[in-house]
Amino acid sequence: MPQNEFNCPQPFPSCSWIAEGLARFISVLGPELQKLNVDVFFGTMERPNEKLVDVALLDPKAGKYIKGAGFQWAGKRAIVGIHRRYPELKLYQTEQECGDGKNDWRYCRYAWTLLKRFLKNGVSAYHYWNIALKKGGVSRWGWAQNSLVTVDAAARTYRYNYEYYLLKHIRHFVKPGARRLDAFTLTGYENLLAFVNPDETVVILMQNDLGQELPVRIKVGEKGDWRYLGSRFIQYICGSGVTHTFVRSLQKINPDSLLS
Fold first, then answer.
1. How far apart, in Å, are the Cα atoms of 126 and each of 55, 72, 92, 172, 173?
2. For a Cys-Cys bond, which of 48, 68, 144, 154 suits 74, CB 3.0-4.6 Å?
């Protein structure tokens, strides 16, 4: 990707482009990277205006070199139209929104909504921003942000945050090469993601955002089963046909209890 957030003048080192200028640059960069067998992705796209992406994709000198596109932040509103009009284009989510440094359950639930939104709009990669930050979560330019791991340098300890467990559990069940499945609902419950792994195991990830248990009936192929989603849980249901079903839950735990 030739330029991160090309349409934004940033407080940190960056380079702003108009869409036409970036397209011209890609037309020059593309053949040079092609000699090295390196693909060009457009991005990263942080604006909701999908026409900014169209400029390069429809440019005959630039578009032929673009093998994919990366979207983040407000780009989540642009990816919808791009995926619809260019269904074969490889798409990445390139940076999860950074949060506010609190690393709380509230933001973990928001991260889940972001994950759903991007995956349902065709991304094949989802990237988190900060792997680890010191306690307080302040980035190098003074912005309090979330991280997967919080480090207490004074105490020489660390803790895994809610979003770490969200991604860890998904990654545990959803294997490389998995394909997302569309799910059909008769009752309006759409707070879920479903995948089929290369071994044909079906994985269903569901969230109950209510303050009480939620009964749901899940049907995969000809097999159906009732489940009760715990209050404010994210549950992972994994099975291969009629043989077995596993359930894992990410509860509202206290991260302070996870200090190592």
1. 24, 10, 6, 15, 16
2. 48
The predicted-structure confidence for 75-125, as pLDDT tens digits, reads as follows: 999 999 999 999 999 999 999 999 999 999 999 999 999 999 999 999 999
Tens-place pLDDT, residues 67-86: 999 999 999 999 999 999 99
Q: Do 209 and 110 meet the contact criterion of CB atoms below 8 Å apart?
A: no
Tokens (6 digits) for 238: 């994994």
Q: Which residues contact 190 (CB under 8 A, 6 or more apart)?
A: 183
How far from each other are the two terminal CA atoms of the chain, in whole angstroms? 38
SS3 58: coil
Q: pTM here?
A: 0.87
Q: Please state the domain extents for the chain.
A: 1-95, 179-258
- In whole angstroms, give the CA distance from residue 168 to residue 162: 10
197 within 8 A of 215, measured Cβ to Cβ? no
Burial group, residue 93, by CB count within 10 angstroms (0-12, 13-18, 19+) = buried
The DSSP bridge partners found for residue 151 are 134, 158
Longest CA span, the chain: 58
Compute the Cα dihedral for 207, 212, 213, 216 and give only its sign: negative
Q: Is the dihedral of CA 70, 77, 86, 166 positive or negative?
A: positive
Q: Are 43 and 1 in contact (CB under 8 A)?
A: yes
CA dist 159 and 29 (Å) reads: 42
Instruction: Give which of 172, 218, 169, 165 is closest to 191, Cα–Cα.
Output: 218
